[in-house]
Structure formats: C-alpha cells, structure tokens
Amino acid sequence: MKLPTTEDRDPLSIGLSTRPDEEILALLLQRQRDALTATEAAIPQITRAAEALRKAAQAGRKIGYAGAGSAGLTALADCLELPGTFGFPPERLRMLFAGGAENLLHLAGSHEDNEETGYRDFQASGLGEGDILIGVSASGTTPFTLGTFRAARQSGTVTIALANNPDTPLLRIADNPVFLNTPPEIVAGSTRLGAASAQKAALNMISTLVALRLGHAVRGHMVNLVADNDKLRQRAQRILQDLTGCAAEAAEEKLVLADGRVKIAALMILEDLDAEGAAQLLSANDGNLRPFL
To answer: What is the pTM of this model?
Structure first.
C-alpha cells in the first residue's frame, strides 16, 4: 500500500546516522529548501487565500485558526503574531487548538481524533457568516480540523486550508485550498520538519500580503504596531522619522500623545492634527496611511 507523502520515508534517510554530522545537517537543510520550493509552487493558491483573508479583514470580520499537534502550533504562532506585527485586533481572533490550552505543553495526540470536538469548538468560537477560518493539517485528514471545517461550512464561514498531501478531505472541503507538495520527511511522519516549514512560510506570505494591501505595512515598516514596550517605542520612533522626516524629539512627543499608535502619530505630524483628529482622518480612509505619504 502506498503511504501518504507525510507518512512515507525519505530514501536518503536510510543509513543516515552513519554519515558525518555535516552531511546529515546539509541534507536536513536541503529538505527545508525543498519545502520552500513546494511553497513557491503554491503561490497561485496562496494568492487566492490571501485575497479571501483581505476581504474579511477589511470588512471587520473575525479570523480563526484551527489545527492539532505541530500543525496547530504553526497556526497558533501566526494567530498570536498578527496583533503585534500588523496591529490586528486580538478580540477578532480565535484559535481552535485540539485539546485546548492545557494541551499545549504535552500535545496529547488523542485530542485530534475527535471530529465532533472540532465541530463543537467551532460553534463555541463565535465565528460565523463572512468570517474566516484557516485550518492547517499536514495530512489533510485530521478529524478535529475537519470537524471545525464542517461546522464552518454550515455557518457560512469562509475557509482556507493548508495541507501537505494531495486531494485530501480538508483540501476538498475548503473554499480556498492550498496544497504544499513537500517531500517525505527525513524522520518519517515528523511533519514539524519540512511540512511545518512550508506551512509557516505560506502563512507568513498570506498575512504579509494582506497587511500590505490594507496599509498595515508601508515602505517596509509595520506601521500598525502599538508601541507598548521600550523596543517597540524605539522602533516606532524610527518609523515615524523615516515616514515623516521629523526629528527624534518630535517623533517621541507625538507617540506619547498618540498612545504609541504609529499611524495616528504620523498623521499628527503630516497633517498637523491632534490625536482625535488624526484618528478620525485615519478611520475615514479605512485605516490606510499610504494616501498621506
């Protein structure tokens, strides 16, 4: 019986432990490159997924992620990073992880086997019509994730699926399937290696493209960040100086008045407004700073 790619064994793994360390590491790195090549081949599908996410984000809809095990951790990382990098409101994010938060330390595998749990977790999430659910499953057959997608379809939630096996149930049920054709793993079935690298790259591409289209990333800067620690305050000050040409002192002053919100501070400088006026002007332009630069 032919095994799914994510369970198959890489022929080059046989006898690998007898080879020098440098050769083993070189092969591991090559398989990471192969995973990224698979991601490149999926760019047309990734483009469609990003457009679906852009529409939902621009309409003020919620974004959910679903997954189990290592694929769930990859989804969780993207979910957690959206607010800090691109200023996406945390209250509009949902994470459906098999087994819940208490399963994060030990990753008990049994939680992913229950499709009904995924269905119920979706129903409890508050996701609904017009929202987005992004499911990540290397095999494309994870029952928990399939349960969330079954509930999403019934609720009118748009779905994006990332999977590393072709023609799998998750890809078939998804509105926006993304097939990442990664090779077998050096350690068979350990999809936290190449498969996860492709998943992470694809998620990074989707969220970054959406941020660019929504004006949350401008001239290579994360302008939607909220500076709430010393590192981010220094970064925000540099961003303001680059975007507006102001002095460091002016950037620091406006950031304080804008409660660390870079876009607001930028408009205060560019349009000579107070924080309230800048916020109103930004809102009237869908939060996009780019027209004023």
So the answer is: 0.89
DSSP annotation of 101 reads G
Angle at 120 between CA 116 and CA 124, to 5 degrees: 170
Contacts of 221 (CB under 8 A, 6+ apart): 239, 242, 243, 262
Domains (range + CATH), the chain: 12-213 (3.40.50.10490), 230-288 (1.10.8.1080)
Q: Contact at 8 Å (CB) between 98 and 117? A: yes
26-51: average pLDDT: 95
Helix 194-213 vs helix 21-41: crossing angle, to nearest 10: 40
Query: Among 39-43, 99-103, 245-249, which is the least confidently predicted range?
Result: 99-103
Q: How far apart are CA 135 and CA 78, in angstroms?
A: 12
Whether 91 is catalytic is: no
Q: What is the average pLDDT score of the chain?
A: 91
- Annotated catalytic residue 112: yes
Question: Residues 81, 129, 253, 276: which is the catalytic one?
Answer: 81
